[in-house]
Design a protein that fits this description.
A three-stranded mixed β-sheet has the order 1-3-2, sandwiched between helices. The longest helix has 29 residues, at 3-31. By secondary structure, the protein is mostly helical. A hairpin with a 2-residue loop joins β2 (236-240) and β3 (243-248). It is built from 23 helices and three strands. It is globular, with a radius of gyration of 23 Å. It starts with a helix and ends with a helix. Bound molecules: zinc ion. Zinc ion is lined by residues 263, 267, 293, 296.
Length: 503
């Protein structure tokens, strides 16, 4: 290997090790650390992140990337080496554009904003958050300015989560979704609600955990490379392609922790199936928030809420939780876990209504950024959109504008990735079905390997080698298109309610 290229690999591994070590500290913080560790842990993480950041902006990296330009010309675009040079150049240039003081202030304001959000929720008082939000927006605008003139300033924020994606890619997708979903959901609100009473009761936590591990092992979880731990807000992370950490929260009263496992499994599998040739480089993880979410939603919803998968899984659930499900027919359970009904809280929303929660937040954050919406008017604007899109009146701020932390800690630009993930998941799913034949028949037999391996081949193995946009086109066979997703939702509503809702 070219000597300079070997040096780049060495620096890449150093950065990777620092970042993953910091990630491990975060994982521990949210799973095992006693509360007394918080202050020291914040310092430890900051130190590791600083060391990584110094390497990203270093002259050493700049020199290597410059020297490697002629080498890059000779390499195949798709090769690991060319991809590493390309992606590290991109990350390096982005990191260099933001002055260290601004970067530090954004981090600091993020945690102040988050604390203000917690307090505003407890006291149900938006004015506690307002000055922090004003400051957050100023900082976001300063951040955008670091990148020079833009077609749309929001592009800069989006790029942090969806490399290469533009606001102009999203707008038509969301417009089409909104046109179709608003009337669909208005009709759902009129229909008789689906009976989901079998999902309420008492579900022993040990049995939920045993069932979840068993189900995930059927899908591809293997204890040599995966772990499942307890946390407050479920998430997945990884420290190498053979060290995948899932977290969940099982609660006695409902099966939310089981469904969280099925969701986090999809995130974990993406990381697990990144090509080992990318290990210990910044390429060894999922490419973007939306692509990641497409994988978690696929396993949670397209596999994990399908009748065919439950034909295989349900007998085991009935066995583990016989007092609750022993007498409940499979079809009743299946309808219950697919219930659709407008509700106030985004994170508890069903597959269909979820997207309108996202679209309204996307619209509001763009209006805040452009100045079109003055921040003191945000709570009223939020409620007005809830009424327009979902037909609901939030009774208080906690069930309204204060339900999410994203804006308080500067997470502007993140919301759209959730719905993009839903849309992309069905595009990829349709391609998998075309290639793999009757997936339902396979799932009924407990056969999940063909889907898993297909995803590895078509998507997961590439890691971060290509931009989010290129990766979607490779995996989905074309640009983002809400058509297949809307058709899927229509089929779902038809099954649940009959033609009345989907007309
Ligand atoms: Zn997720």
């Amino acid at each position: 290997m070219n000597e300079r290229l070997a040096e780049l690999y060495s620096l890449a591994s150093e950065i990777w090790d620092l970042e993953r070590a910091s990630g491990l500290l975060s994982w521990d913080e949210e799973t095992h650390m006693p509360p007394g560790g918080a202050a020291a842990r914040a310092e430890q993480k900051a130190t590791l992140q600083r060391l990584a950041h110094e390497r990203w902006v270093s002259d050493r990296l700049a020199g290597l990337l410059e020297d490697l330009e002629p080498v890059e010309q000779q390499l195949e675009h798709d090769s690991d080496e060319a991809s590493l040079i390309r992606v590290m150049r991109r990350d390096h240039q982005k990191a260099r554009r933001v002055p260290a003081e601004l970067h530090a202030e954004i981090v600091r304001e993020g945690s102040l904003g988050y604390q203000a959000w917690l307090e505003a929720r407890v006291r149900e008082d938006f004015s506690i958050l307002l000055p922090r939000l004003e400051r957050n927006l100023e900082l976001r605008r300063a951040y955008i300015e670091c990148f020079g003139p833009q077609d749309d300033p929001y592009d800069v924020l989006l790029d942090d989560y969806e490399p290469g994606m533009k606001t102009s890619d999203i707008d038509p997708v969301f417009a089409q979704l909104k046109r179709a979903l608003v009337p669909m959901i208005a009709a759902v609100a009129e229909a008789d609600p689906v009976d989901d009473s079998c999902l309420r009761g008492s579900f022993p936590v040990d049995a939920q955990r045993r069932f979840s591990l068993w189900a995930m092992e059927c899908w591809g979880y293997d204890p040599d490379s995966w772990r499942l731990d307890k946390t407050v807000h479920p998430f997945a992370t990884s420290f190498s392609t053979s060290d995948i950490r899932l977290t969940t929260r099982f609660q006695e009263e409902h099966l939310g922790g089981v469904l969280a496992c099925l969701h986090e499994f999809g995130h974990g599998l993406y990381e697990r199936q990144v090509s080992p040739s990318l290990e210990r480089t910044p390429l060894a993880s999922g490419v973007s928030a939306a692509l990641h979410e497409s994988q978690s939603r696929m396993w949670e919803n397209l596999v994990g809420r399908s009748l065919s998968a439950w034909r295989f899984l349900y007998p085991r659930l009935q066995h583990e939780l016989s007092a609750q499900f022993g007498e409940v027919p499979l079809e009743t359970f299946h309808r219950a876990i697919n219930k659709v009904q407008p509700s106030l809280i985004r994170v508890e929303a069903d597959e269909v209504t979820y997207n309108l929660h996202i679209i309204l937040r996307y619209e509001l954050e763009r209006e805040m950024l452009s100045g079109e919406l003055a921040l003191p008017d945000l709570p009223a604007a939020f409620d007005a959109k809830m009424k327009d899109y979902l037909g609901l009146d939030p009774p208080d701020l906690v069930h309204g504008v204060l339900q999410d932390a994203h804006w308080s800690d500067l997470g502007f630009g993140y919301f759209p990735t959730y719905t993009l993930g839903n849309v992309i998941s069905v595009q990829i799913w349709e391609r998998a079905r075309a290639d793999l034949g009757d997936l339902d028949e396979q799932f009924e037999q407990g056969e999940f390997r063909p889907l898993r391996e297909w995803l590895g081949e078509e998507l997961h193995r590439h890691g971060r080698k290509f931009t989010a946009r290129e990766t979607v086109e490779r995996a989905a066979g074309g640009p983002i298109d809400p058509g297949p997703y809307l058709a899927y939702l229509e089929r779902k509503l038809n099954d649940l309610f009959g033609a009345a809702v989907t007309a």
